[in-house]
Amino acid sequence: MNIQKSYGQENGFGKLYLVGTPIGNLEDMTFRAIRILGEVQWVAAEDTRQTRKLMTHFNIPTRLVSYHEHNKHASGPELIRLLKTGDSIALVSDAGLPAICDPGSELVKLAIEAGVDVIPIPGANAALSALIVSGLSTERFTFLGFLPRDKKSLLQELELLKPKKETLIFYESPHRIVKTIEAMLTVWNPERQMCLMRELTKKYEEAARGTVSECLEFLVEHEPKGEYCIIVEGSTASEAVVSIEWWVSYTLQEHVEHYETQGSDRKEAIKRAASDRQMPKRELYNLLHKEE
């Protein structure tokens, strides 16, 4: 059990501040974020060049240190050592809230294990900003970050997400988004509602709202540019019925081949078909051999 009293209780250690920074528009920088960046002894940045521009704009002279995916194993313990000597550190990402889809989450774990207080300094966030303007339900949602790059893993992940009823939120890069939406179209109901949000808070901010199939057509006709947030409607009642019944008319062989066409190897396809039919995979394997 770990109980943190962020203020009024000192242990001689510094504090780790997770500071939200703008995702595009510099006017989204908060007064508190500027103050904290100026008061700490160190600013740990994912990209020091990017963060230096931000700090120069706001006249913040604090020393910068690099902390990112490729140096986290060496830099992380050193930052913890500094915190334990009494120095406070502000962790920032290239844009938005740190520790979301970046190695900052690992530094947070190290700090908690070391007894260092971790304090959030709220700021801009792309996922939630896109969600609230999507026009889709905000009552329940799941943030998935980036989907797998490998086609087989991507299709399998989308299959697992297919029955989810809550709104789904993803990040995607411009050079991968068409393939990602194509995969969604393969697995999900093409009439699901979707919002593609790009260049949030920037000059060319754009929201494309429509069905999965309409959004794919839009991307084919308009070259993707900028980083995207993808907001997708959860599974509908009609889709849930289809998902239960889609394989009923299939023979065992056709059922297995369905998954093979989506990228699964023979063993995995048999496993998934057996799961659909709620039968042991060994039994399905034996029945397939009898059909041959």
Order of helices and strands: EHEHEHEHEHEHEHEEHEHHHH
Strand content is: 15-25%
Q: What general form does the structure show?
A: elongated
Q: Overall mean pLDDT score?
A: 91
Helical content band: 40-55%
N-to-C span? 58 Å
**Helix/strand-derived class?**
alpha/beta
Q: Residue ranges: pLDDT <50 for 5 or more in a row?
A: none
Total number of beta strands: 10
Task: Profile the largest sheet.
Answer: 5 strands, parallel
Tally of helical segments = 12
Return Rg in Å: 24 Å
Order of strands, widest sheet: 3-2-4-1-5
What does this structure look like?
The chain has twelve helices and ten strands. It is 43% helix and 17% strand. The chain starts with 15 loop residues before the first strand and ends with a helix. With 292 residues, it is of the alpha/beta class. The strands form two sheets. A five-stranded parallel β-sheet has the order 3-2-4-1-5, sandwiched between helices. It has a five-stranded mixed β-sheet with strand order 6-7-10-8-9. Helix 7 packs antiparallel against helix 8 (212-221) and helix 10 (252-261) packs across helix 11 (266-277). Strand 8 and strand 9 (206-211) form a beta hairpin. The longest helix is centred in the first third of the chain and has 13 residues, at 72-84. It is elongated, with a radius of gyration of 24 Å.
